[in-house]
Structures are given as structure tokens and as C-alpha cells.
Specification:
2 domains; mainly alpha; Serine Threonine Protein Phosphatase 5, Tetratricopeptide repeat; 223 residues
Amino acid sequence: MKIVKVITLLMFVSTLTWAQKPVKYQVLFGNKALPQKDKLELDQFITSCDASFASRKEAANFFAERAWEFVASGKLDTATYRFNLVNALDTSSIDAFWGLGVISFQRKDYPLAKQLLAKGLISDPTQALMRVDYAIVLLSCYLEGKDCGTLAEVDAELAQSLKDEPKNANAWMKRSQVAFYQEKYELAWTYFHECRTLDILQMDLNFGSQLAEKMPDPKGVFK
């Protein structure tokens, strides 16, 4: 499990639009044909991997790890290119869809992020952490008034994630926020305390203050 995969911990933003970037730095090469120079570079890369790794899947896993490191350091263009290479090596790679989905989210392309993370979850529905990221994308859609997510959808995804991994404090925190937006304040407190019990570092204390303004903490922990 890589902590860098969690969307809420990634705060890097790119100022360029996808259209302004070279094809190699667009998600899945922008679903366009690569320029000859880049195509030659890709072919050479795959040939080198075939000679250096036991399988392309093994190579894809290796380079996915490197790509996540670029995401963590905020080098999103480089990370995008590396995840594109991972996808070229293994079109079923969960990391490629996950990583490109996280990058798309950071660039505020929520519909694309939703599409990519959904592909990853279709390939492996047991990825509880990726499902939380998917829920966060849907929540961001809702909060910004975009037609790509509803509170009911967010809550359903978080519920499924917690069914698969009940000790995910971040998921409980997000579910508390969803309940707050639904004006279910007592339920929001219940989820908030679930988060507190599991990992206090995942708690959003500013949100806790907002919740307390709507309804006092039933446990009396937060004033």
C-alpha cells in the first residue's frame, strides 16, 4: 500500500491544460497517435524492458513504483508519461489507471479522473483505497456543482470501501463529511468518532468545528 495513492494527500496543481501539453504528457497519450520520435522512443523502451525483465507485467510493476514517486514529488508531467509507459507495457495495470486518475484529479479534470478510476475498479473491485479516491472525485464534482457525482453516489462508494476495509480512517472522515452535507449531523458525529478512534491524524478539526456549530458532540469530546 502506498500512501501517495491517496488523493487527499496530494496537493500539486498544474497550470497548463491537457491540450497545451505534448502528447507524451497527456493521459494515455491523449488517445492519439504518437509523433514518430516519441513512437520510436516507446518502441525502444518496450524492447529494452523485454530484454531486462521476466515479463512485461513485471516491468510495468517496477515502473509504476517509479511513477508513484514522481507523483509524490509533484512532477506530474513526468509521472503521467511514466504511467503511460506502464499502460503500454500492461494495458490491465491497475496502477496506470489509478495513477493517471489521481493526476487528472490534481489537474481538476474530474470527469477524466472519474473515468480512469472507474476503469481501475472495474478491473479490480477489491481495491478499497482506490474506491475512496473515486468517492473523493465524486464528492469534488458535487461540491463544485459539476454533473459527475452526487452525495448518494459518494456515500455508496465509501460504504463499499469500508465494507472491504473497515479500518480506513480517511474513508470514515469523508463519510462524516457526506453526512454533514446531507444534514445528518448525528450520523456525521458517529463517523467522525470512528475516524478519531482509528487514526486521529486523519481527522479534519476545522470540519469538526463546523459540525459542532450544527450539533453539539453527543460524546462531549469536542466543544
